[in-house]
Design a protein that fits this description.
Elements (H helix, E strand, L loop, with lengths): L1 H10 L5 E2 L7 H7 L2 E2 L2 H7 L2 E4 L13 H6 L5 E4 L8 H10 L4 E4 L19 E3 L8 H19 L13 H4 L4
Parallel strand pairs: 1-2, 3-4, 4-5, 5-6
Length: about 180
């Protein structure tokens, strides 16, 4: 997802900064021109901080008081990954105090977002439900894929996207 975000940002002529605990492939860095920085350097320079990581012990509250304090007051944070990557109380304070300019959130620390969340009252926040996969286009793509895969199986062929191919040998008749 992060790579797709990079490609879209580049299409808009953006300078793209990156930070990742996993070393990015040299080919991708060369292709895109991403400037890999420390997290602190990235936060100090970025106009938009897009979070595109999984949730694990190292990414839990990756964005907290300290990180928001490093960001420019004109910057915005975007989280479409996992809610607990951002410590929401710290985000609310940063938004209320003008430490950052805004946030766009598709995921929340507690889901569904509680009715009394202070995020609802902030005019510098965009809140959307994390349901992009439920769009009519996504459902159409899913149904088409289900038909294609089913057709492959019915015709005795191995379907694409087999997650555990090691079981295929057990399913074939002996002889």
């Amino acid at each position: 997802i992060g790579k797709a975000v990079v490609r879209r940002a580049l299409a808009f002529g953006m300078r793209v900064l990156g930070n990742d605990v996993v070393e990015m492939p040299a080919e991708f860095l060369a292709e895109t021109g991403i400037e890999m920085l420390s997290k602190d350097e990235l936060l100090a320079q970025a106009d938009f901080v897009s979070l595109n990581c999984d949730l694990n012990p190292t990414s839990f509250h990756l964005m907290d008081e300290r990180e928001f304090a490093l960001m420019k007051p004109t910057a915005a944070v975007i989280n479409t990954a996992r809610g607990p990557i951002i410590a929401e109380p710290a985000l609310v304070r940063a938004l209320q105090d003008g430490a950052i300019a805004g946030a766009a959130l598709d995921v929340f620390e507690v889901e569904p977002l509680p009715a009394d969340s202070p995020l609802y009252a902030l005019d510098n926040v965009i809140l959307t439900p994390h349901i992009a996969a439920n769009s009519p286009e996504a459902r159409e793509d899913l149904y088409r894929l289900i038909c294609e895969v089913s057709s492959e199986v019915v015709q005795g062929r191995i379907p694409p996207f087999v997650v555990n191919p090691e079981v295929l040998d057990r399913l074939r008749p002996a002889g």
